[in-house]
Design goal:
The structure holds three protein chains of three kinds.
Chain A lengths: L6 H16 L16 H6 L4 H15 L21 H6 L8 H14 L1 H8 L13 H15 L5 H13 L5 H11 L1 H4 L38 H10 L14 H31 L6 H15 L16 H12 L7 H4 L11 E3 L5 E3 L25 H10 L23 H15 L6
Antiparallel strand pairs in A: 1-2
Chain B lengths: L9 H6 L4 H31 L8 H5 L9 H37 L7 H20 L30 H30 L12 H32 L27 H18 L2 H15 L6 H15 L14 H29 L8 H24 L1 H7 L3 H31 L5 H27 L19 H17 L1 H13 L57
Chain C lengths: L1 H25 L9 H35 L14 H30 L11 E6 L2 E6 L12 E4 L1 E5 L3 E8 L4 E5 L4 E5 L5 E6 L4 E7 L11 E7 L1 H15 L9
Parallel strand pairs in C: 1-5, 4-10
Antiparallel strand pairs in C: 1-2, 2-3, 5-8, 6-7, 6-9, 9-10
The chains are: A mainly alpha, B mainly alpha, C alpha+beta.
Chain lengths: ~450, ~575, ~260
């Protein structure tokens, strides 16, 4: 009964406990990722496997693998280096971010890393612990800390350099790509094709960045989004969709995600366009990828001139203004909104629907992925692009790219004049808002 | 002596048998495999919580290859949903009521078989069908159910709400409804057997506590399980017909407005009431029989009668009675209302009283005993220690304002794992060591058993103790990635420690598997009564033949006659010896 | 073996006590309390913890002692004792007294949390709109009334005045979510189909993380938000600035 346990069992017990206690520092690798070419690209290169492989390699050279993304086509000429967004952010080498944006990033990092910065200030260097989630920042801090521990750096220097590390931190493209893997890939997929593992359960489907079409921006269309547009979507999310708000990430990290989205979008668009070129011409020039990349990048940089600003101030939402909006909403020569959004804004207008093959009501419009496009039920008060008057103004003025929602701002009346003016759009905005919530009593 | 003939042939002996012992062993094999499967799911979850979104060796490639070799968010929700379901409904409940209930009840009350042997076989095969439905969920579009083992609507009822709320959830509901039918039949059988088939002289107050535990648990199931089963049928109606019992009007889920065929006024809270009306008592179904096993094992191995037999019986009965009245404490944060919160707080605290009384009685039972530290005794003592921890952490949760903070955090996870794993699973291991010689005629290895017990005890504390800290720090359960919140940054090392401990705990169970295999081939052969115990099963051969007893039984005394005042030996069997 | 069995129980007891003692220092403990109710909840937790600790050490000590003494090798038999009514009544009464104390001790806090009579008068400060998988918040705009066209909206960040009672109305448009702010010790499920009130007083300005605590689908783990509390003056200024910013023509987007 009181025999000692066999040595083998003691050994097992001991080693099991030791492994449990001692191996807590173990850190497994993230899984490998590779970009895949789209089916359309494969089809375009159908009978030329060699050219396809060459093209695939070319894209890999130009944009790097997912874990080490880069733009090989640029050194200079843009005024900033997209390969080093950190430098660009810091205002060196020209800088892509202006002083206000840089100040905002630093202020946000000060708030986000408050605990680390406080520990630095009070000299509790051991308490500065960057979570494994930010490996780049963690490694940079460890390097500083080790210098200090080895006696090669005094307290004041560590404090100063540590503070600058956290406040001035901006992730590299590779670090942002890792954030993308953890936060975005489930829905948007490795290539940004909107085809991640969770995507097929979401309605609407996640955006396919590779078409360069982004629905909710402040811009006159067609335009690639500006950094600020992507940041708005990342920060606020898209109400009424599965796109959540990423305000929990430091602003620097959201900037980094915008960098990655741009890279994926450009890579995808270059792939798509060159596949089309190959299908037409049967060959690609040697520098086709570089030229095309520069061409697409150009579109991204020219968007800053396309911001829609209302010509007139927001009027008060009086009943007269709302009544005018109501009239415009139903006027087929002006707003013509009711044709799709329906008489009461319920999204049941006749133009949005057709009689399907089975004799039942079917959506009249399908998007590029053959999924139905339904006009918004405006009574719900869910505005994907934002709920401020100017947000709805821009939806009406510029339309929503990728959908039949037209740009009223450039629409013409039958007599050739501009169909609606700025005041008309404001009236529509107030009317649309009044469908969801009562107007304030005045 | 039984007049029926024992069946012949492998199929009739081991597959289509109506013998309660064979059915008990069938349940044991089936539910032990579910325990193993549920444990594997838990390992995958622990990996994700320690190192979110990284690749598991081998498994990442094999199982999650098509979702980027990491556990996807939808897969993680399926993991914990199916872990909970497998453990509660398919492992622990059937282990106790199915395996031990079937095997032990007739033997301990002195009956040749269960009251309805064919019904008994039917309930097992219906259970197998439910298992089939459970596993089918993994192979449908959208994957297995996603709404947690509690399956709260509208997440569970609306297919657009979650990937697993499509066909996966339908299969989940079907499996729960089918399983409900199986359990109701089984419970009915147990109740009738105890009421009608006790041997001559086996009065109620001479029943071993194991029988009391199993009998009261079965009665609880009879009282409450139909409610859950009906609730499950209503949820199926919501899914198939759009009846909207649980769905309020005006929802917009994943851009889909649910089609309610004109039904309005449904409430998600209705399901919570129906679900917990059974699933809280289910917790007592999962622990009352275990309490019975432990009482018996402690008494046999302390060579002392159970201290306060009658208070123990009344504690079991009152736990069951109160257990029907505390379900609302799962809903303190769901908008239950102020007065209701107070009422359920009171009933919840009240139920702590009989549980604590039992604990003191166990300690008094072994107090001054002549303790044999057999493997089963070690497990039973482990049960007492861990049940104390699980019970005491319940005091925090019973205090409504504190529960508002702790609800759905890891403290709750710690609390119920201490009861169900630390408590029930250890008691089951103890019971296996105790009754294995009866079931197979061979003993398990004692030394191996004791070391299995010690390692399991240590490792499971390493797993579940730090979860209290996680919960107090506010870490919510069912999160696929705690590193999302800055609040939880300091908890990362703790989470990794828990994960490593969980792996060690799982690996340690190999000892038990080795022990079982070794025992089946070469275990020590035993006679009728290897533990010098008093209850009736030890009067039967090991293993008992068809019809159980080979001599007539006349019960002459209670089940716990041990010590210096019972006659020639230090124990006095319940049945008058040999005729 | 008996040394091991009793020893493990003693070691476990010691580990539990030490673990709970060092946890606050290690950051494995409540986040700093930031609402008035948080202090009474923490106080309640603390004294229940004391009760638990006493009960725990007592029971584990008895258990270890009983095992260690009982498992000595002895030839004589144990005394046949079927129980003791006095002891049963004694410990039942002691346990019942503790339970009654816990039941009574929590009543005032529960009333402050949930008694409709304690609900602040006047309208809601903000509306919480939970959906898969984000938090959105509406505040009264220029007209001072919630639920009208000029409401202000924020995503993910709820801005509230500190130092005074606030009342929220929680609503969900799809599945059940749960509004959990650990630093405020508040948790309230957001059940679709009903508007759930929640009231509290934040003690001091600061930013507190908001967690979704009820499983709400595959994005549940990432449904994070935060509550930013401002002094009354800052809050008024913030509202005024938002009212102003809401009426923009979009000029600030031109760089």
């Amino acid at each position: 009964m009181n025999r000692a346990p066999p040595p083998l069992i003691r050994l097992c017990l001991g080693s099991a406990l030791l492994s449990a206690l001692g191996a807590c520092g173990f850190e497994p690798e993230p899984p490998p990722r590779t970009y895949a070419l789209t089916q359309a690209t494969r089809d375009a290169f159908a009978d030329d496997a060699e050219a396809l492989a060459h093209f695939d390699e070319g894209l890999l050279d130009a944009f790097g693998p997912p874990a080490a993304p880069r733009y090989a086509a640029f050194g200079d000429g843009l005024g900033f280096d997209p390969n080093h967004p950190g430098l660009a952010a810091a205002g060196e080498a020209g800088g892509e971010l202006d002083a206000d944006a840089i100040a905002a990033v630093r202020a946000d990092s000060r708030a986000h890393f408050e605990r680390e910065l406080n520990a630095l200030t009070s000299g509790d260097f051991d308490d500065v612990d960057v979570p494994a989630r930010r490996p780049g920042l963690r490694a940079a801090w460890r390097a500083l800390f080790d210098e200090h521990a080895a006696g090669r750096m005094d307290d004041a220097t560590l404090r100063a350099r540590g503070t600058e590390l956290f406040e001035g931190w901006y992730p590299t493209l590779a670090e942002s790509s890792e954030v993308y893997r953890v936060e975005c890939l489930h829905c948007h997929g490795v290539e940004g094709g909107g085809d991640g593992p969770s995507s097929r359960f979401l309605e609407p489907r996640p955006r396919d960045f590779r078409h360069g079409v982004f629905k909710y921006t402040a811009l006159a269309q067609p335009a690639r989004p500006r950094r600020a547009d992507l940041l708005r979507t990342l920060t606020e999310g898209l109400n009424g969709t599965a796109m959540p708000s990423f305000a929990r990430l430091p602003l620097a990290e959201r900037h980094g995600l915008a960098d990655v989205v741009r890279l994926l979008s450009i890579r995808g668009e270059v792939e798509r366009r060159l596949a089309a070129t190959f299908a037409d011409e049967g060959e690609l020039e040697d520098d086709a990828i570089a030229t095309e990349t520069a061409d697409v990048f150009e579109k991204w940089t020219e968007s800053r001139d396309k911001v829609v600003v209302a010509e007139t101030e927001v009027p008060e939402a009086t009943s007269a203004v709302i009544a005018r909006g109501n009239a415009l909403f139903h006027d087929s020569t002006k707003g013509n909104c009711s044709s799709c959004h329906g008489d009461k804004g319920a999204g049941d207008g006749p133009a949005a629907w057709k009689i399907g093959a089975d004799g039942k009501r079917a959506p009249a419009y399908l998007d590029a992925w053959d999924r139905p496009i339904l006009p918004r039920d405006l009574r719900l008060g869910i505005y994907r692009g934002g709920s401020r008057p100017i947000d709805i103004y821009r939806r009406i003025w510029s339309g929503i790219p990728g959908t039949p929602m037209p740009a009223l701002g450039t629409a013409k009346s039958p007599d050739g004049s501009q169909a609606v003016g700025s005041d008309d759009v404001w009236a529509l905005v107030h009317y649309v808002r009044s469908l969801a919530a009562p107007a304030p009593e005045r | 002596m039984s007049s029926t003939q024992a069946p012949r042939g492998f199929l009739r002996t081991w597959i289509f048998s109506v013998d309660h012992k064979v059915i008990g062993i069938q349940y044991l094999v089936a539910s032990a495999s579910m325990l193993f499967f549920g444990g594997l799911l838990a390992m995958a979850m622990r990996w994700q919580l320690a190192w979110p979104w990284t690749e598991m060796p081998i498994v990442g490639q094999l199982v999650f290859g098509d979702v980027g070799r990491v556990i996807s968010p939808a897969a993680y929700t399926a993991l914990f949903t199916m872990h909970g379901t497998a453990m509660v409904f398919f492992a622990i409940l059937p282990l106790l009521t199915g395996a031990f209930g079937n095997y032990l009840v007739p033997l301990l009350v002195g009956a040749p078989d269960m009251a309805f042997p064919r019904l008994n076989a039917a309930s097992f095969w219906i259970f197998v069908a439910a298992m089939g439905l459970f596993f089918a969920g993994f192979f449908v579009e959208g994957g297995a159910a996603n709404a947690g083992w509690t399956s709260y609507p509208p997440l569970a009822t609306l297919p657009s709400a979650a990937p697993g709320s499509g066909a996966g959830q339908t299969l989940w509901l079907l499996s729960i409804v089918v399983l409900g039918v199986s359990s109701i039949l089984n419970a009915l059988n147990t109740v009738v057997t105890v009421v009608k088939m006790r041997a001559p002289g086996m009065t109620w107050m001479r029943l071993p506590l194991t029988v009391w535990g199993l009998f009261v648990a079965a009665s609880l199931q009879l009282a409450a399980l139909p409610v859950l089963t009906a609730g499950g049928v209503l949820q199926l109606a919501d899914r198939w017909i759009g009846t909207g019992f649980y769905t309020p009007a005006g929802l917009l889920v994943n851009s889909v407005a649910p089609d309610l065929v004109g039904a309005t006024g449904g409430s998600p809270l209705l399901w919570q009431h129906l679900f917990w009306f059974y699933s809280h008592p289910a917790v007592y179904v999962m622990v009352l029989p275990a309490m019975g096993f432990v009482s018996d094992i402690l008494s046999v191995n302390a060579r002392k009668p159970v201290f306060g037999y009658k208070p123990m019986v009344w504690a079991i009965v009152s736990i069951a009675g109160l257990g029907l009245l505390v379900w609302g404490h799962h809903m303190f944060t769901s908008g239950l209302g102020f007065e209701m919160g107070r009422a359920f707080m009171l009933s919840t605290l009240l139920i702590a009283l009989p549980s604590a009384v039992k604990t003191f009685n166990w300690i008094a039972t072994i107090w001054g005993g002549r303790i044999r530290l057999t493997a089963s005794m070690c497990f039973a003592l482990g049960f007492v220690a861990l049940f104390v921890i699980g019970g005491l952490s319940g005091l925090w949760l019973a205090a409504t304002p504190v529960d508002v903070y702790l609800h759905d955090t890891y403290l709750v996870v710690a609390h119920f794992h201490y009861i169900v794993f630390g408590g029930t699973v250890l008691a089951v291991f103890g019971a296996l060591h105790h009754w294995w010689p009866k079931m197979t005629g061979r003993a398990l290895n004692e030394t191996l058993g004791r070391w299995h017990c010690v390692g399991t005890f240590v490792a499971l504390n390493c797993v579940f103790l730090p979860m209290h800290q996680l919960g107090i720090a506010g870490m919510i359960r069912r999160t696929a990635d705690p590193s999302v919140y800055q609040l939880y940054e300091r908890l990362a090392p703790l989470n990794r420690f828990v994960t490593w401990s969980a792996f060690a705990l799982a690996a340690w169970q190999v000892l038990f598997v080795v022990n079982v295999l070794w025992s089946l081939r070469a275990g020590l052969r035993v006679g009728r009564n290897p533990w010098s115990a008093t209850t009736l099963e030890w009067d039967a051969p090991s293993p008992p033949g068809h019809g159980n007893f080979d001599r007539d039984l006349v019960i002459v005394c209670g089940p716990y006659e041990y010590g210096d005042a019972v006659g020639e030996h230090d124990f006095r069997p319940q049945a008058r010896p040999g005729v | 073996m008996r040394h091991l069995a009793a020893g493990i129980v003693v070691i476990l007891t010691a580990v539990v006590v030490v673990l709970f003692a060092v946890s606050p220092r290690m950051g494995w403990w409540f986040p700093p309390a930031a609402s008035t109710i948080a202090h009474s909840i923490d106080a309640l937790f603390d004294w229940i913890t004391v009760v638990i600790a006493i009960g725990f050490v007592l029971v584990m000590g008895l258990l270890a002692w009983a095992v260690w003494r009982g498992a000595r090798a002895r030839a004589d038999r144990a005394r046949t004792s079927h129980g003791h009514l006095g002891l049963e009544i004694g410990w039942s009464a002691a346990i019942a007294a503790v339970l009654v104390a816990i039941a009574l001790g929590q009543l005032p806090t529960w009333a402050a949390l949930r008694d409709p009579a304690a609900m602040p008068k006047g309208g809601a400060t903000a509306m919480v709109d939970a959906h898969q998988w984000a938090w959105r918040f509406q505040y009264a705009g220029a007209d001072g009334v919630l639920g009208t066209v000029d409401d202000l909206e924020t995503a993910s960040e709820l801005v509230l005045p500190a130092g005074e009672p606030v009342l929220l109305t929680l609503r969900s448009r799809d599945v059940i979510h749960s509004f959990f702010v650990p630093a405020l010790r508040l948790k309230q499920d957001v059940v679709p189909g009903r508007a759930t009130p929640l009231w509290f007083t934040i003690e001091r300005p600061g930013t507190y993380e908001l967690v979704c605590a009820e499983l709400c689908g595959l994005g549940h783990y990432a449904m994070a938000g935060r509550v930013r509390a401002l002094s009354r003056a800052d809050y008024d200024a913030w509202i005024a600035a938002r009212v102003q910013a809401r009426l923009t023509r979009g000029t600030e987007d031109v760089r």
